[in-house]
Amino acid sequence: MKNLIVLLILNSFLLSSCTKSSLEQKITEKNSFWYIYASNKEENIYENINYGYKFYPDGSIDYKGFDFSTNSLKNFRMDDVKQIMKWNYQQKDNVLKIENKTYDVLKFKEDTLILQYSNDKKKRILINLQTNNPTKLKSFRL
């Protein structure tokens, strides 16, 4: 009986440690695509830069831009810079690492993720517009 109890406790611990957080589940949903909104010169206004991320459950990412001529997303790669196409969410510290950048997660709600660079106060917003044309939401006000 003791062995069974120990086995059940161990099993529940393993299952809970493998469970992804709601943030991880949301950003890796099949049809999600997270457009990047960067700060413009006006305070608290963030504009869509027509590029964003596709997050995969294995920790890899694709960086894509919206091609207006074909009305679709296209992979974007810089040949002169070695890109680190990985992401990682540290739930304990509420930190999201994308490529070589570290962000504190300030807010996560539905299809909006508000991030702040860990080493300064500059914010970046990711909004899940899926594969929609980014003109659907050109700017965002905090």
Would you kindly provide a written description of the structure presented here, covering whatever features stand out?
The chain has a single domain, classed as Lipocalin, CATH 2.40.128. 16% of the residues lie in helices and 42% in strands. The termini are far apart. With 142 residues, the chain is of the alpha+beta class.
Key traits:
alpha+beta; Lipocalin; 10-stranded antiparallel β-sheet; globular
| Silhouette | globular
- SSE pattern: HHEEEEEEEEEE
Provide the CATH architecture.
Answer: Beta Barrel
Q: Calculate the terminal CA-CA distance, rounded to whole Å.
A: 56 Å
Helical residue percent band: 10-25%
What is the top-level CATH class? Mainly Beta
| Domains (count) | 1
SSE class: alpha+beta
- The radius of gyration is 18 Å
| Mean pLDDT level | 84
Structure described in brief:
By secondary structure, this protein is α+β, with helices and mostly antiparallel strands.
List the helices and strands and how they pair.
Elements: H1 2-18, H2 22-27, E1 34-39, E2 45-55, E3 61-67, E4 72-75, E5 87-90, E6 95-98, E7 101-109, E8 112-117, E9 123-128, E10 139-141
Antiparallel strand pairs: 1-2, 1-9, 2-3, 2-10, 3-4, 5-6, 6-7, 7-8, 8-9
